[in-house]
Amino acid sequence: MSWIRLVGLDEASGKLAELYRAATLRAGKVFHIVRAMSPSPHVLEASMGVYRAILFGPSELSRAEREFLAVVTSRSNRCHY
User: Fold this and answer.
1) For 6-63, how does the pLDDT look when each residue is reduced to its tens digit (9 = 90+)?
2) Distance CA 68, CA 5 (A)
3) Rounded (5°) CA angle 20-74-19
4) Which of 23, 25, 49 shows the shortest CA–CA distance to 38?
5) Between the CA of residue 56 and those of 43, 50, 72, what are the distances in Å?
6) Could you report the per-residue pLDDT of 49-58, keeping only the tens digit for each?
7) How many other β-carbons are positioned within 10 Å of the β-carbon of residue 54?
8) Are 37 and 12 within 8 A, CB to CB?
9) What residue ranges do the domains of the chain occupy?
10) CA–CA dist 48, 3 (Å, integer)
11) Distance between CA atoms of 25 and 29, rounded to whole angstroms?
12) The whole model's pTM is what?
């Protein structure tokens, strides 16, 4: 059970609705990690900026290597996303 009141897709408005739409276009759905930040859309937007910088910004690592590290980290943390 969640301790954070998550904002549902059908009740999101303003900036959050925009971020949910972008998430759906990008991944086909809104993952729970995104919804966990729904009470603070400005935090969600900043978090997505960090995510994009890590995966798509300049780096000595290839995109495949970055994705691999994300999978290994998630697996080590027993995350399902």
Assistant:
1) 999 999 999 999 999 999 999 999 998 899 999 999 999 999 999 999 999 999 999 9
2) 32
3) 10
4) 23
5) 20, 10, 18
6) 999 999 999 9
7) 13
8) no
9) 14-76
10) 22
11) 8
12) 0.77
